[in-house]
Cytochrome P450
Amino acid sequence: MSSRDSIQIENMEFLNYINIDIILGLSLGIVVLLYLYLEWKYRHWKRRGVPHLKANSLIFGNVKELFFSKDVRKSLYDHIYNYHKGEPVMGYYEFQNPVLMVRDLDLAKKVLSQNFYSFSNQRFSVSPRVDPYMAMNPFSRTYHDKWKESRAVLTPGLTQGKLRSYPQVFLKPYKDLCKFIDESHGEDFELNDLSNRVATDVIASWGWGVEGNAFSKVESSIYNTFKDMSLESYGLDLMVSNKFLSRIMGYRMFSKTQSEFFTDLTRKCLDASTGSNGPPCLLQISAQAILKCDEFDTSDKENFIKEVTAGLCTFFLDGFATTSMIFSVLLYELMMNMNVQSKLREEIKELDNNLTIENVEKLEYLDMCLSEVLRMRTPFHYLGRTCTAKCDLGPVQFQPGDDVIIPVSSIHMDPDYFPNPEQFNPEHWSAENRKRRHPMTSLYFGFGPRMCLGLNYAKIFLKIIVSSLINDYEIVPPTNHQYDPITWNRSKAFIQFSDQSLYVKFEKLDS
Ligand code: HEM
């Protein structure tokens, strides 16, 4: 080896040495800087002088258990709600995102209603490129992105007056349900399955003006598509906890196939409804509302179909799982609490089989039973907002970008407001008890300008079908299945579910 070669080798070894040193040094520097940055992020609430829960994970803040164990959002929120309970607000972290839980009921009212302009947006946003129909749901729309207009399109088809005019929408599926029950000759029924079928038929009928055929023996594509929509996933959890990650992962609620299914169904129904004299449905009512609204481009036929489909997807997505779940747990609670069921039946029997929508809407005890199940099993266990304009609300000064949550389910289960909250007790809703409580203690349909758009539909659906069932059948414990109190152990993102099978039996009553 020449002396030139040996110098070259020495230089290369020296360079390798320097490279490793530099790489190690730089990596260490980056880790230290990242650590200091995260530490700084997790001092957010301390800097703002807000009482808070310390982050227990450098990456996940306070929500590590949601992603790595069986813990659910509801128990995390209960924990924060009960921590230093006297404080009106409590800060915590979802990943590095500081979130403020508002516990004080007057302050919650200010956030949801009186200061709506500063808190008009949901905590999450959906990209129209990734999930066009979810992005067009009023739920996801921001104040400045046609939120008001898309509510206005759906509102005329969801008023009490309109729904009362077409009882067949509810009564035909009820008849099919009875036939299904009667043909089974006393078998046990699983309520989640039964309620999904009824909800499918009513939504198909009022939404698109078609039969859902969920009780039919032949395969129903509508029923299959409806029941396959999943509202529980880590994607949804990410959507609310970490907007950045969920955007990168491109999480969507409506898959491509489902979006195509709904577009196709709407297109066919729109064509069929042109010039038809049949009873109206939400599709026709909202299509007319869209045509009258300057904000939507209706000159392009495909765009018009997309707008109509988006409204119907909203009706389906926001209305199917919620009403179906409440229907099944209410029937189950009535089976578990036979004294309540008997009292309810006495009230219904006074109508002497004259179960019109107007008559059942007036039944006080039915309303109390429904409120009670909505309190205990509220589908949306919290309301979330992002602050968009600076706002001073006394205990805390809100800044644009602050995420705020109102812990609905923790409020509903607070013994200070509802004694024995774990017990299904419709008396919680007697006129006397209602008067004694703060109005913000019942938040199952939300509050303020973003309040549930489908509450008339949900109440009428539940009241007419539950009262008809209680009038015609006794709901008794199953013969061949176990039945236990409901466990509320699955609550992904904002919707709560029970993963339990809920079995009951129906015994026909003499009319
Ligand atoms: C038992 C059934 C239902 C419950 C408990 C329920 C509950 C809620 C709650 C709590 C909110 C407010 C969310 C917030 O403020 O952040 C909401 C919003 C909404 N609900 Fe419902 N809902 C039910 C059924 C329905 C149905 C049948 C529809 C059908 C159209 C519907 C459509 C909507 C829409 C579009 C919004 C968004 C409103 C907006 O942001 O402007 N919901 N619902």
